[in-house]
Structure formats: structure tokens, C-alpha cells
Amino acid sequence: MKYGLLLLPLLLVVALTAKANAQKPESDPLKRAIAELQAGNTDKAIAALNEVISKHPGRADAYLLRGNLKMSTGDSYGALRDINKVIQLKPDLGSAYHERAVILLLAKDRKGAIQDLDSAIERNYKFDHVYSLRGQLRSEQGDLKGALDDFDQSMKLNPNNPQTYASRAGVLIALGDRERALSDLDYLLKWYEKEPGKKYPVRSSAEDPKTQPGDSKKSNDAESLIVGIASKTTNAAPGDKEMIPVIATAYVNRGLISSSLKKTEAAIADFTKAIRIDATNLWPFYHRANEYEVTGDLSAALADISRAIQLDPMNGNLRVEHGVILVLMGKSQEAQSDFDMLLNADRALWQKRIDDRLAAVKKKVPPK
Question: What is the pTM (predicted TM-score) of this model?
Fold first, then answer.
């Protein structure tokens, strides 16, 4: 699964830190680091922050900014060390745990990422993107109920994020709640079809100063200001590139629900829309082929499954389906070449799948 992951926005860190240091002398290396960052000179900004930290090793804001900069340069190990130092200096800073969760996730430590997201939320860093990320990770770990709770909470904080609707729908389908899943998918797809280019305004807890984490003391120094940093979610618009696979998958999922309800025409229509949006996704071709089998349009089914095989030639399940369609068309000899390819690789595995698939399809579509 692809994650919409970002560390604390650098411009936000810069803005808060700059405000805190407005009265400090121009020679202040932290101000110099901010100026270099604004000029796009990342290396010089890091060098200035090194100077700050060498003189003032207790500056959590400097470590946090340097950690962000190191992450932006691909130095995830250096970023992790800096964020660990922030947590050591300010163990109640929820945003730092969120940042570390992102770094751990990039290192494929999903268990550690979930634990840090738990810590962030426990420390009142409660924002929609934090719950949404934990929901995705919980879903991957098989904790569907926990994932659903997180997506529900994310929706409460930001009810207009289309990506959260897509994620929650996937969990609801896995839980067997087709009615709620269909409601989420309908909302998402109507938004996509009727309001291209529109971005919704966001109001989440990040905009409410009363819920800012760690704001019990307000002062003008950078360290206390950095405790209150919170990032806001920018909702996607229908035309955003990142939404292409999300919308395509939503059409596929709605098509599968229609298929389960024996609404073949509606299922085919949604699979077709998914293909128009993202022709690199093999699954709408695969599922539309299954629907064409039901209607008896075996030529169309064969064309779809052939296209899916072009996208993933090594996928054995696609080869099974290709052979099954050929059998239904009365071309058993051609089908056998598909089956032999699989049986030569692993007879015990593929013979059962071939037999099961043929038995299931022949109940729906009598062979010609």
C-alpha cells in the first residue's frame, strides 16, 4: 500500500522558529539556517544547525529542523538520530513520535511505527492524518476493527478527505459490511465525477489552539513554540495525479460489490471506468473478464484476460483464467498449453486451482 507520508512541513517549522527568533541578532546561526533553507541551500542550512547544536545541545527545535532536512536528503539514519534526540529532550512532544513513526515505516518497521503513532496520540497529537496512517498500518497487520476505529476518528476530524473514504471502504469490504462500504464508495466516486478540480476546505483539530499538543506554556522561545507545531492535511482534488490509483481501486471495489449482488451490468460499468482511469491496473481487466463470462461474451472475456496477462505475464491465476475461458469456448487444446505451463511449475498447487475454477465456471456458463 502506498502511504501519503510527510514529515512536519519544513515551512511550518521555519515559520514558527523564525517568529521565535525575530528579536535575536543576525549572527544567530539558527536564523542563518532558516535563511539558507528559504534560499534552497539545504547543505548550508544543515551546517548552520550543526553550529547551533554544538553550542546549544539542548535545542530541540534545532534537532527537529535538522532531522527534517536530513530526511529530505535521504539520510534517514541521521534523521532518526535527531528525532530520537528531540524525544529525549521533550518526551511529551507528540509530533516527534509521529515523525519517528514515518521514518520507521520507511525502514519497513511497521510494528515500531504503530507503537510510535500510539505514543503520538497518547500525547494529544490527535490529527486526521495520524489516525489515517495508523489505520492503514493496522489494516495491513490484520487488525481490521482497530483500522476501522482509526478511519472513523480520522473522518470526524476531517470529513472531506477522499483518500480516507477509499481506505475505510476497503476495510469495510474486508469486514463484510457492504452497505457502509458502498456508501463510502458512492460518496468518493460522486465527488470524483461531479466536482473535478475542487479542493475542500479542511477544519481539523490542528486549527483549534485549545487542542494544540503541549501548549500549557506559551512563550517566545523556539523550544516552546515547536511543541505546538501541528501539520494540516491538504485534501486532494479529483484531478490530482495521486488520486488516479485511488479512484480506479474504488471503482473496482464498487464493481465487486455489484458483482456479489448479481448486478452484472453495473459491475461491468465500474470495471470499465476503472480501466479508463488507470489502464495499468490488471484487476479491472480480470474482474470484467469474469463478468463477461457470466453474460456469455467469451470473446470479450478472453480479450480482457489477455490484456491482464500482458500487464503481469508471471501471474499464475491469470493463466488459469485464460485457460478456463478457452475451455468454455471449446478450445481445450489451446487451454492445455496454459495449464501445462502451471503444472510443470507446481502440479500439486495448480491442478487443484484449475479444477476448482473449471467447476465453478461451468455452473454459471455452459461450455460451447
Answer: 0.76
